[in-house]
Specification:
heterodimer; A: 597 residues; alpha+beta; Methane Monooxygenase Hydroxylase, Chain G, domain 1; Heat Shock Protein 90; five-stranded mixed sheet; two-stranded antiparallel ribbon; 71% helix; rod-shaped; B: 357 residues; mainly alpha; Cytochrome Bc1 Complex, Chain D, domain 2; 3 domains; 13 helices; 2 strands
Chain lengths: 597, 357
């Protein structure tokens, strides 16, 4: 029970697991088949456009600052900041579309960082350069106005200043030459001029240095491939988008197939459920029906049980009866045997008397009688002294007749005893070849008292001996004859017993009477055990049922034909070969010998 | 000394040198000549036109403060609270506001360097936070790219807050009121991200226009004549080469001592902080390079420079002339420049400027 329960839970659990897995796979497919949000893609493209534009404007602004067209460096910083912001948005959008920033993004960041640093350097260089360049004319003028400065010096400083400006504007001047010119400036003049010249030298060198630095930074800036990195990143991302779209398409295809499969599965499960439901309905219906018929079946079973019980009772009664009969049979056999002995010497004695009477006594008595009569010669008239009268001549034959009668009676007793012995044979269970007519005769003999005055008509045919248990067959016949005798009256009662062959292998015995017959309503039940029409206590109700059993055991048939008021006919059919003795049931061995039913 | 108000400097006084490179052909000389004439003409034109353009088209190197961005008032309020919260520091003695006193210009009350936890002295002079939102990088060496990130640097600096985020968050999380406020605003418990965000939001709310901004927007009477003259000096001497843009600086790096050896002359031993941006990039060219500080509210934020070596504006201006411009200027011009710089003070703080020197 517990095991079943847990296995059920396990089954249910695994079912839920499988369903969950199927749904999870569906969700996985659905998620993966979704294309990157078109809005995000559009955003990304817009970002790239903006990045390019800002980058280009930044480059322009660097040049503008270089050439003094920008009043301040805010535009540069704004450009860098905008690019950084867009770059951050790009990352956010990429994350939203589920694409990892490719290597190109790092390259862009790197280029951007370099650009940022270069622009910082550029601003610093540019500011210094511009200031020095701005100061230079003032210095030149101051030197020119100094009375100690000669024309050569004035020309020298002017030329240098002009060269530095040219260099600043066109970057085509030979810086080495300018440096040489700066170095060639005289150093030891009067203190004020020397200071001016020193300032000139310093600023000139600063301009040169910063110009070179600027040119270098501008070259670096031109070299930094921010624009190319942007292009590359965009290309990469577009490739990723294409790949993603392809992947999404692939998953969409799988999703379609999977959905179709799931649908089919659901349909299949639905169909199975419907079928299971139908079966359940059917089973339910059957269960209801079974429930309804249960009572009937119980009744039927009860009936069967009752039948079995009555049969059991019958068997018990049979057993008791047969025990009784067996004891009775033994007693009868014992009594018969015991009677035989006195019967023997009574008969012997009687025969001796008869013999003696005939051969010796009778002539003697005749002679004695004649002698006496002779002696006396006269009849005696004195009564007291009257001589005995001579023997009546008739007396002796009468004696002989009486003795003969006694002998006859003894013979009859002997026959009865023999019949009793035969009937209650101790070997009654033994099967043997037996002429049925013998059994009928001995039954008739036993029932002599019952059937006296009734006409007994015997119609014996030429029948074959039957392999049977004679005592049992005798019992049946005796039972039927007894019944017939009881059904008939003393006057006019006729019992007809006939035997004949039916075919080669069956002997038929018919025992008929012209008695009261059996009422139609009981004729069907006369072979049932305990069924009796007699008063309570007079019959056991077992006689005919035992007869039926015995005949059935001999593979024969017993039938009854009766018309109330006209008479009854019992017909027994016995096969010549009734089967092996071993087949004889135990019950047969203990069959009651006598049944007065 | 002539003064030029435009960005372009005239060179018309340069006479073309006839004697040079006579060996070249006349054709070449002719071309050169044409080019030089064209160049000179352009420059003359530029000189003539630039000031007019500057006046009429708003072509000023300094830009007026834009309006502050739209900010969540609750965040700003929270940021104010956090800005004044000493629990950010390890021993609970120092808050942002300990060294950046908003009402006094956003810097530290005239101290050369500020005091962090356990009375440690900082390495550099505390800059003003009033317009820090407009700086392109934060800190003197520009080591932080924005206000949000900047918080972490101060927090972790062993001389400043000497703390960690986990410790700060742990301390702040015990404050049920604060936690519920933060949950209401950010929908989450205090974190490095949202705490930094609130503090940054507060700092973005701080910029406030000065009279000079009103002048830049066309209100010519917003500044005095002297201040106006000072502005012209500021431009013509080239201060504006670095101190330009919205924040009058704060948008570039520059080497301290571009035209002279500042550190050799300073008289103080060189410190690690003196290396400036070199500490961030490691590049030799970044040695002694610092972020050009914004000059907004500069009159309130003495002493000056990263080392706080200049006690007054006048001193600072003198140093700048010597080491950044490589020139001298008359005292009167410097005085005028000071006047101009005072006009960059946020209007609500001008009363704390004190009397004019």
């Amino acid at each position: 029970m517990n095991k079943l329960f847990s296995s059920r839970i396990l089954k249910g659990f695994s079912g839920i697991l499988i369903a969950a897995a199927a749904i999870a796979f569906l969700a996985f497919l659905a998620t993966n088949s979704r294309d990157a949000a078109p809005q995000a893609r559009a955003n990304l493209i817009a970002h790239f456009l903006k990045l390019r534009e800002i980058n280009a404007r930044l480059d322009v602004n660097v040049l503008r600052s270089r050439n003094g067209f920008n009043s301040d460096y805010d535009p540069l910083q704004e450009g860098l900041q905008s690019m950084q912001e867009i770059r951050a948005q790009l990352d956010t959008d990429l994350e939203r579309v589920g694409i990892q920033a490719p290597e190109a993004a790092r390259a862009l960041d790197e280029a951007f960082a370099r650009k940022s640093a270069s622009i910082d350097d550029f601003k610093a260089a540019n500011a210094i350069w511009r200031n020095s360049l701005r100061y230079l004319p003032t210095l030149v003028e101051s030197i020119g106005q100094n009375p100690r400065a000669d024309t050569a010096l004035r020309l020298q400083t002017s030329e240098i200043a002009s060269g530095l400006f040219r260099f600043g504007l066109l970057s085509d001047t030979d810086t080495a030459a300018l440096r040489q010119l700066l170095d060639a400036l005289p150093s030891s003049l009067d203190a004020y001029l020397a200071e001016l010249l020193q300032g000139f030298r310093i600023h000139g060198e600063t301009i040169l240095r910063q110009s070179e630095r600027e040119a270098e930074l501008l070259a670096t800036l031109a070299e930094i491939p921010v624009a190319r990195c942007i292009d590359l990143l965009q290309e990469n991302l577009e490739f990723s988008f294409t790949a993603q779209a392809e992947r999404a398409n692939f998953f969409r295809d799988i999703l379609t197939v999977y959905s179709a499969l799931l649908l089919l599965l659901i349909l299949y499960i639905g169909a199975r459920l419907a079928r299971a439901y139908r079966q359940l309905g059917l089973a339910n219906h059957q269960l209801n029906e079974a429930n309804e018929t249960l009572e009937a079946r119980v009744e039927e079973r009860t009936r069967d049980l009752n039948a079995a019980l009555s049969e059991l009772k019958a068997s018990e009664a049979h057993l008791i009866q047969s025990e009784k009969m067996a004891s009775l049979g033994q007693m009868v056999a014992g009594v018969a045997h015991e009677i035989n002995t006195p019967l023997g010497y009574v008969r012997g004695t009687l025969e001796f008397i008869l013999h003696t009477l005939g051969d010796t006594l009778e002539p003697y008595c005749v002679r004695v009688s004649a002698f006496i009569a002779g002696i006396l010669g006269k009849p005696a008239n004195d009564s007291e002294n009257q001589a005995p009268a001579p023997l009546d001549a008739e007396l002796l034959p009468e004696l002989r007749m009486a003795l003969d009668n006694s002998l006859y009676g003894l013979d009859q007793i002997g026959e009865i005893v023999l019949n009793l012995k035969n009937f209650s044979r101790l070997d009654r269970g033994q099967y043997t070849l037996y002429r049925l007519e013998e059994g009928i005769d001995s039954a008739l003999m036993l029932a002599k008292n019952l059937i006296k005055h009734r006409a007994i008509i015997k119609n014996y045919g030429d029948t074959s001996p039957v392999f049977c248990a004679p005592s049992q067959i005798n019992q049946v016949v005796l039972n039927l004859i007894t019944n017939a005798a009881q059904a008939t009256t003393e006057e006019g009662g006729t019992i007809t017993i006939s035997t004949r062959m039916k075919g080669n292998d069956t002997v038929v015995i018919k025992i008929a009477d012209n008695g009261t017959g059996i009422p139609e309503d009981v004729v069907g039940r006369i072979f049932d055990p305990f069924f009796t029409t007699k008063e309570i206590g007079k019959g056991t109700g077992l006689g005919l049922s035992i007869a039926y059993k015995i005949i059935t055991q001999h593979k024969g048939k017993i039938q009854v034909f009766s018309k109330p008021g006209k008479g009854t006919l019992f017909a027994i059919e016995l096969p010549v070969e009734t089967g092996a003795a071993s087949e004889a049931p135990a019950l047969a061995e203990d069959m009651p010998l006598l049944e007065d039913d | 000394m002539p003064e030029h108000t435009g960005e372009f400097v005239p060179i018309s006084w340069v006479r073309p040198e006839k004697s040079k490179r006579t060996a070249k052909g006349s054709r070449w000389r002719f071309l050169r000549r044409i080019r030089e004439i064209g160049l000179s003409a352009t420059l003359i034109l530029g000189m003539a036109v630039a000031p007019a353009l500057a006046q009429n088209l708003g072509w000023e190197p300094i830009k007026p403060l834009p309006p502050n961005p739209a900010l969540d008032a609750a965040k700003v309020k929270l940021g104010f609270q956090l800005f004044h919260d000493p629990r950010f520091s390890d021993d609970g003695t120092v808050a942002c506001a300990s060294c950046h006193l908003i009402a006094q210009g956003g810097a530290d009350r005239g101290r050369r360097v500020s005091e962090g936890v356990r009375r440690q002295m900082g390495e550099v002079n505390a800059p003003s936070v009033l317009t820090a939102a407009h700086n392109f990088h934060q800190f003197w060496d520009g080591r932080s790219p924005n206000l949000e990130d900047q918080v972490s640097h101060v927090l972790a600096n062993p001389r400043e807050f000497a703390s960690t985020w986990s410790a700060v968050i742990q301390r702040l999380s015990r404050d049920a009121g604060l936690v519920s406020t933060m949950r209401a605003i950010y929908g989450e418990a205090p974190s490095r991200k949202n705490l930094s965000d609130a503090i940054a939001a507060y700092q973005r709310s701080l910029p406030e226009i000065s009279r000079f901004d009103r002048f830049l927007r066309g209100e010519s009477s917003a500044i005095t004549a002297e201040e106006r003259q000072g502005y012209e000096k500021f431009k013509s001497y080239g201060c504006v080469a670095c101190h330009q843009g919205v924040n009058v600086g704060g948008n570039m790096f520059q080497r301290l001592g571009a035209l002279g050896n500042y550190f050799a002359d300073r008289g103080m031993p060189e410190t690690r902080a003196d290396l400036g941006r070199f500490n961030v990039t490691g590049k030799e060219s970044d040695r002694y390079v610092f972020k050009v500080p914004s000059l907004r509210n500069v009159a309130l934020t003495a002493p000056y420079f990263h080392d706080g070596s200049a006690a007054t504006l006048e001193e600072a201006i003198a140093v700048m002339f010597k080491y950044q411009l490589g020139r001298a200027a008359p005292a009167e011009d410097q005085r005028l420049i000071v006047q101009f710089l005072r006009a960059l003070t946020a209007q609500s703080l001008e009363k704390s400027l004190g009397s004019k020197p």
